[in-house]
Amino acid sequence: MRQPLPLTQKRLTGGLLLILAALFLLSLFIGSNPISLFQAMRDALLDTPSVIAMILTEIRLPRTLIAVVTGATLGLCGAAMQGLLRNPLASPGLIGSASGAALGAVCMLYFGLSSTLPMALPAGGVIGALAATLLVYLLAGRDAGTLTLILAGVAINAMALALIALLLNLAPSPYAVREIVLWMMGSIANHSMADFQIMLPGILLGWFLLMGTGRSLDALTLGEETATTMGFSLPLLRWRIFIAIALAVGSAISITGSIGFIGLVVPHLLRPLVNHQPSRLLLASAIGGAILLLAADICVRLFPAGTDIKVGVLTSLVGAPFFLYLIIKSRRYQL
Questions:
Q1: Interior angle at CA 92, CA 231 and CA 112, nearest 5
Q2: Domain range holding 71?
């Protein structure tokens, strides 16, 4: 099968932004009851009290913004992780960030802090992600190779998932179990603008840390020794990317719950279009991740009324077969 031709940065970015803008408007319109978007926007801008204006500003707009920012975070962090580890099968969860964030958020739900303190859930997610990342780094060692980091990440992931299972087993009531399980499925529904504002600071800080890593990741494609001789510090680059992913993914997951495979699928699909250049892949993956999660959330709303399918379940149903395809494809190249 022929590989798609690389596109220029402006053409690719412009095309992806057009798709994202179209999906953004479609997301504001589509729901259990489609609304007149123009009328709702006019009522909201004129501060006219109406049901459709409330639906737009209190339900549709926060949901759409959270989908865009979370998808962009997962896509961007996935591209950074694949560039750092030079492995197209890597994802943000590979170093324990996602599972650590999930454990931190579940602890806040288990002890009831999320219902009393608005910042408890994102704080738990960020602290859990940072702790898991630190454990991976300490377990692997300062000058660890890529394989050692991956193995350390797998070990921390397994430990975090085991602790989550323990908390579920010790939950004081079936209602607590249900709340934790539903959160772990991943959902963008039933969130307010306040939730969006809570998750935004950590995500923006993570994005800021990843902004200047493109040239280092490009140099890393030539090999670790070559990148070092070119003046790039690999330990500093790893710490920067690990902390950025912990902050961004931890903040996003703490609000939406676990949403998997976007950080794996999106960079892999877009990599041929940027000529396999990590610095160009970062921005493209951020926009592509926003597109994929927003499209998945729109698809969830198209299910019949009463069918509550979580968006995390849908992304896993799509991402798991794709992951298997990548494994089979990599085995063919090795044979």
A1: 130
A2: 9-334
**Which residue intervals of 141-173 are DSSP H helices?**
146-169
Both tokens assigned to 66: 């959270």
CA distances from 62 to 109, 161, 247, 280 (A): 22, 30, 21, 29
How many domains does the chain divide into? 1
Q: If pLDDT is split at 50, 70 and 90, which confidence band does 1 have?
A: very low
Using a cut of 0.85, tell me whether the model's pTM lies above it.
Answer: yes
| Residues whose CB is less than 8 angstroms from the CB of residue 162 and which lie 6 or more positions away in sequence, other chains included | none
Q: Report d(CA 165, CA 171) in Å as an integer.
A: 10
Ordered alpha helix ranges (H), 233-277? 234-256, 262-270
Distances (CA, A) of 29 to 45, 52, 186: 17, 10, 22
Asked whether the predicted pLDDT for residue 333 surpasses 80, the reply is no
CATH number reported for the structural domain that contains residue 159 in this entry: 1.10.3470.10
